[in-house]
Fold PPK2 family polyphosphate--nucleotide phosphotransferase.
Amino acid sequence: MSIAAALRFNPGDKVADIDTNATPGFDGSKSDAAPVQAERSERLAHLQELLFANNKAADDQRSVLLVLQGMDAAGKGGIVKHVVGAVNPMGVRYTSFGKPTEEELAHHYLWRIRRALPPAGHIGVFDRSHYEDVLIVRVHNLVPPDVWGARYDEINAFERELVDGGMTLVKVAMFISLDEQKKQLAERLDDPTKHWKYNPGDIDERLQWPKYQEAYQAMLDRTSTDYAPWHVVPSDRRWYSRLAVTELLITALEAMDLSWPPADFDIKAEKKRLAKA
Ligand code: ATP
Ligand code: MG
């Protein structure tokens, strides 16, 4: 089975059963993955250029939105750096969603999300997303349960609208074990070049893992739709999660059936004009 197919969330799958150390759809080791990653990154960059070119030259209105969710230190930043970093930044719209500002809080929770959507021809990257509004918000009851409870259906309707407008959503939920998270946080504490990544609040969130597990389960159960399915990416091995997200993006772009847009000018005539110019 392909990596992308192996990662798709299926109704009935349980978050508690995820093997965070597994490498679904890939048999090899880290060293086997390195040349594959290099080759697949090139493929991804090629497809992204086609997406961009088709918008520029043929007014293709389609776009891709990569939604990254995961606990602290799950490796979202590494995906942005290594996977998204392999494509031309000209065609990428990256946004990270932290604690909402006062201005954002004064609006509907989808307000800041809508403003960050990728333009046609682009790959949008959401480093955290509207799903925080049913994850951290649910765990801490930042709004009453009937308010966050209504958001699952609302998010589905919102995503339906995006898909109908020509956007392909690639929703990725990254899972690491509590042991791996501890190791990653310890590394951040031990390494002065990583102190900027460390947030004391991460330990408080970590202690809430059982509640997060429930919130992630509800998110996957209620918002994995046929038009915008979730993918569960085991992320203890970072080389694997990077390869996996690369494959998910390639699969999404390949389904768009892109080819080089034909010239909308007379090539021969232009060659003649250029020779004389
Ligand atoms: P890393 O995974 O490397 O720690 P990060 O994504 O946690 O990076 P931070 O700036 O440390 O980046 O944290 C952002 C914080 O903002 C997270 O704790 C997240 O849960 C929180 N957050 C995001 N959206 C919302 C929201 N709508 N309401 C409340 N908190 C939110
Ligand atoms: Mg954090």
